[in-house]
Amino acid sequence: MRIETYLMLDWKYTNTLVPYQESLDYMEENVAKIHGKNAPEQVWLLEHPNIYTAGVSANEDDLLDPNQTLIRTGRGGQITYHGPGMRIAYIMLDLKKRNNCDIKKYICNLESWLINSLNAVGVKGERRKGRVGIWVVDKNNPDHENKIAAIGVRVRKWVTYHGIAINVNPDLTKYDAIVPCGISDQKLGVTSLKKEGIDIALEEFDKILKQEFIKIFEG
To answer: Which residues contact 104 (CB under 8 A, 6 or more apart)?
Structure first.
């Protein structure tokens, strides 16, 4: 684990798999510290072991494999998968300090951050009305689209937490155990940078994420 500081914001990198509950406990504690002006804002880049989590809008019937454990969490969204090869970024920002108490604008900025980061490696990510996350048109079936990045946030006392997940090179078969984000349309699936032909290490993609974050949130 290492921490870099840039413009009064800490960038925390963890290179071991972080148990999901451990990350929840950390965020709860750190958000309280940030609100109390006892810690700097932070972006935490990490991976989780294989786990399925449910947001506040989740339908438990979307867990198709009853043998899988499901952790309920307070983030927005429905049921999704986390695992190795997926870059998780937990963003803990004080929106009041930033004079930007607008949750919709914050989410829009997260989307722009993801789109710009994907574009930097040659993948065209797009927003879709009515569908959370970032999508990629299937090159082999132009009427199909695949989700490459998810967004699920929570805000407490105007401090954000939870954040984004980008499929760099996870085991996509893990999504077979769920209805990802409640979307059952057969024309909508999941993809990854690897599946899109981009072979990049998480550490290299982290550099791009940091560069593009600074442009959106610190520019």
So the answer is: none
pLDDT score of 185: 67
**pTM of the prediction?**
0.93
163 touches 153 (CB < 8 A): yes
Helix, strand, or coil here: 145? strand
Which amino acid type is present at position 113?
W
Residues classed as catalytic: 181
Could you tell me which CATH class the domain 2-217 is placed in?
alpha beta
Other C-beta atoms within 10 Å of 183: how many?
A: 16
Give the start-end residues of each E strand in the chain: 2-6, 9-17, 41-47, 51-54, 70-72, 79-82, 86-92, 126-128, 131-137, 145-156, 159-167, 188-190
**Tens digits of residue pLDDT in 171-185:** 999 998 888 766 666
